[in-house]
Design a protein that fits this description.
Heat Shock Protein 90, binds magnesium ion, 12 strands, Beta-Lactamase, 5-stranded antiparallel beta sheet, Helix Hairpins, alpha+beta, 362 residues, binds adenosine-5'-triphosphate
Length: 362
């Protein structure tokens, strides 16, 4: 084949590979880079300090993970040994992103040396979408079930409470069963709170309870409810709200429940030694964003995916039902909004709630 033609073909192939948005690299069995596409260079650590030629001969884990040994979850060696394609998901390669790493081993470039193709695909968005659909399904099914059960329990529970209260009224102070009866009443009261939580979680708002309201005023009123708790736990509150009303549409009482849930979770996370709670409301073009940030214990990464699940709690038995965030999630969704979390262990947690804004703002 004529050399010029080969060069022409090579340029065409390289242009195609460089046009890919996913990073792609060819390495040898010792992780030395042989070739890479442009996206690979752009995603490297400190790409500006390395020029294209410098990638050749460098180890992939050096330029990509900033390590001096292969990444702990790397399956390149396995794939080579078994001669099979393999893939895994890494959350460590690019901060805060989920990356699918696919390995195609034993690509014969020349006879003596079988190389390995590594392809990286950012699946953060895809995973988030998948999780949110799965969560919505799960919540809808659970909501129906919980609503049904709560409804059934409600009547016998009301009976227990009514009879316990009646008996308490009629008992004399030295009745040997007085304390037992108080226990029954307190336990029934606790059940009532759980049942109310379940019903709240299951309930879809009726159209008449959906109304336009000022979210700034709603947040101020909710914070007033939490002030005493904040003082008691020595938590400093930093509040940043717009000076004028901002209107959204939904159920005022239920939205207030979301903010209160986020505040009580934050307080619980800072129960050892206080801290700082920041609540910021930002008006965007079509939405309002409410940020609730605490300087508490933070949420370990493996737990972050579960916190919106109904009944997920890390609190000791009897202290929490694990419904707070599941209910908040369902309320925010009913407001056609989104809720997300960012957290770092030992540093703190930020919840972001975004809900659509009504067009008029006065
Ligand atoms: N601000 C926060 N800081 C640290 N962890 C948090 C925070 N908010 C939520 N979590 C974690 O998420 C879990 C679930 O929260 P959720 O509000 O749904 O339930 P709960 O607070 O445990 O119980 P309940 O709200 O019923 O009292 C908590 O147990 C905790 O592990
Ligand atoms: Mg809670």
């Amino acid at each position: 084949m004529d050399v010029e033609f080969v060069e022409h073909l090579k340029t065409q192939w390289l242009a195609m590979i460089d046009a890919l948005e996913d990073p792609l690299v060819l390495i040898d069995e010792n992780f030395n880079i042989r070739r890479q596409n442009l996206a690979y260079v752009e995603k490297a650590i400190n790409p500006t300090q390395l020029d294209l030629k410098e990638f050749k001969g460098k180890k992939c884990f050096e330029v990509y993970a900033g390590r001096n040994a292969p990444c702990p979850d790397c399956k390149v060696a396995n794939a080579r040994q078994q001669g099979q394609k393999t893939s895994w998901t890494s959350t460590e390669l690019f901060a805060g992103r989920d990356v699918e790493v696919r390995v195609l081993p034993n690509v014969d470039i020349d006879d003596s040396n079988a190389l390995i193709v590594v392809h990286y695909r950012d699946i953060t968005q895809q995973r988030a979408l998948h999780e949110s659909l799965a969560r919505a399904d799960k919540l809808a099914a659970l909501g129906k079930l919980a609503g049904g059960v709560a409804h059934e329990i409600n009547s016998p529970l009301a009976g227990i409470m009514a009879f316990a209260q009646m008996a308490l009224r009629e008992m004399s102070k030295d009745d040997p069963h007085l304390e037992d009866m108080k226990e029954i009443e307190a336990a029934a009261q606790k059940c009532k709170l759980i049942v109310e939580g379940l019903l709240g979680f299951a309930r879809q708002d009726s159209p008449e309870s959906v109304e336009p309201y000022d979210i700034v005023e709603n947040i101020q009123a909710t914070i007033r409810l939490a002030r005493a708790m904040l003082r008691k736990e020595k938590i400093e509150l930093r509040l940043d709200l717009p000076p004028k009303p901002v209107y959204i549409e939904g159920s005022k009482g239920r939205f207030s429940q979301v903010i209160l849930n986020l505040i009580t979770n934050a307080i619980y996370a800072m129960r050892d030694g206080g801290g700082e709670l920041e609540i910021v409301l930002t008006e965007l073009a079509d939405a309002v964003q409410i940020k609730v940030r605490d300087s508490g214990c933070g949420i370990p990464p493996h737990i972050q995916r579960k916190i919106f699940d109904p009944f997920f709690t890390t609190k000791p038995v009897g202290e929490g039902t694990g419904l707070g965030l599941a209910i908040s999630y369902s309320i925010v969704t009913q407001h056609r909004g989104t809720i997300s979390v960012q957290s770092s262990e030992g540093v703190g947690t930020t919840f972001n709630v975004t809900v659509p804004k009504l067009r008029f703002t006065s």
